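Hi,

Apologies if this is the wrong queue. I'm a grad student, and the batch job for FAD-binding domain-containing protein from Zalerion maritima produced an output file that my downstream script rejects. I'm not sure whether the problem is my script or the file. Here is the sequence I used:
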Amino acid sequence: MAGPRELEVAIIGSGMGGLACALALAKKGFKKIDVYETASSLGFVGAGLQMAPNMARILDKWQCWEQIEAEATVVRESSIRQGSNNEELAHVHMPNIKNLYGHNHVAGHRFSLANGMYQACLKEPTIKFHFAHMIESVSAWSPKVTFTLKPRNGDAFTRKADVLLGADGIKSTTRTHLLSSLDLPSQPTIQDTDQAAYRIMLKREQVKDDPEILALLDGDCVTRWIGPQRHIIAYSVDNHDIYNLSTTQPDTHFAAAPNASYTTLADKGEMIRVFQDFCPLVHRMLDYVPEGEVCEWRLRVHAPLPTWTRGSCALVGDACHPTLPHLSQGAAMAIEDGAVIGEVLAKSDGTPESIAKCLKVFELLRRERTQMMVDLAKASGRALHLGEGKAKEERDRLFREAKEKGIGQQTVPDKWASPEVQKMIYSYDCVQESNDYFDKLSKEAAKVVQI
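Support response: The file is valid. Your script probably expects a header line. Output copied below for reference.
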């Protein structure tokens, strides 16, 4: 039997989870890694995102963090403001994040992150990309995984691999076939959040005559405006040339058409009406958005899956633990998944039984952690969107207390900005945990693995 580095690994999807799996395995010496992606290329897509030290720590080990960080904005403070009048509720200073956790917390463009990882993959001769290829089905799970791929302009064909990693997102085809093969419902229980999001990117040229917005663009602060059932979070990306805004508001369009796409072209006037009771500064920012360039995203999560693995196949990233954006950890969790996949598969002896056990260890390592993060993101969203009442009064009291006394270790209702939550997230080392607990979890995995 060939050793683990000779295994043929197929990865479905080249998002953050897929790229992370490919890089992690290449860095561990795996020699045959194929990545299949539905899109024709990794184009300039997406919007801004925050990249915390727990993500940076992994990318630095893979030698691709330096350029990604160079294109980003170092976040040194956060301001939480009342949406209606721009009154500051709390201010979180973050000047010592690098000293505490070894890396900066930065804000950048999603493309910068994806491209940085992709360029690192291209330097690895063992990774091959196959764009415009969509997975259609999986027909066998062990000793080799057998699956069918459909090129965009060609006939479907069947492939076999020693390992199949489903990094194909929240609408994962790999997940559908994995669950149905175990006589489980083929689709997870969708937990509609009743929330949607607008994602907006204002270029410097658009706001050059607005000194108040320019000051935000030139700053190193993440600002959040909050109100009943809605909020906006904003920060600079692309070396302070773009001001990125992401909103959350009640879902009306997708709720009316539950089977539609997760994205839709939206109406600028409707977007402005959603935030009509917010302050003039917010109105001006929204008004700068060109007509016809307003897109809305549905925000959805699903109930925890009964399993992430079968045989030599495992799900990663949004395919198994989609989350809300309120904690800014979705991409980080997918990248952590990839890092752990590399660690556990490197400990396999190459047999199908060992591969299945190692992939189950991956699930055991990641399931509790990712669910905690998903739950924290939900809780943060609930706190930010409170309407009038005692709960909001208590939330605002905590904000005031943090602002007046200075933030040390006390709780801040915005979980992303809360020091004790930051410590729990930013100090986490998934690679160290994988090595510390592998032997213990291997015994547990051997009892529950499904071939």
